[in-house]
Input
Amino acid sequence: MGEEQSGQIQSVGFTLYMEMLEQAVEALKSGKEPSLEDLLREQTEVEFRLPALLPDDYIPDINTRLSMYKQIASVTEESELSELKVELIDRFGKLPDAALNLLEITQFKLEAAKLSIKKIEAHQKGGYIDFHLNANIDPTCLVRLLQSQPRQFSMDGPTKLKFTLPLEERLQRLRFVQDMLKYFQENLLPQV
Output
């Protein structure tokens, strides 16, 4: 890749860049003009501040590693992600922690996208969940959450649920977000 592309990848992240590139190519193939707003509208971003990558000592060949990243970025179903995990283990051996993080974050992205979540960020002292305006979450579940634990949860604008609690360990962060996603899945508005 040229200097310009690698700079763009660094600014948005490899996975998001690959998804945007794939959507742009599809739009061009169908005769449409791709717009940045359309490419970003549907994306879900998940940031746990953990190393999430395929280490070069796990997959030494750069072309194979890039191919695996592309496959991970293009996953749309949980079953595809499970198959990809099996393939990685079969081809390259036991997954290192950074690769496990990458696959778990991809899993969270799939779940969050179904809930119309724009971004999840979780770090050592808390984080936030930012919903799209059209999220199908029952607002009363947010009110219950805010009332039950006012020191831990607050709203920052109409779509951003902030949480403040210690999440220093990797598993703590992952479990907390997993529990939050489950809570929101259980509190979807009924489809009309």
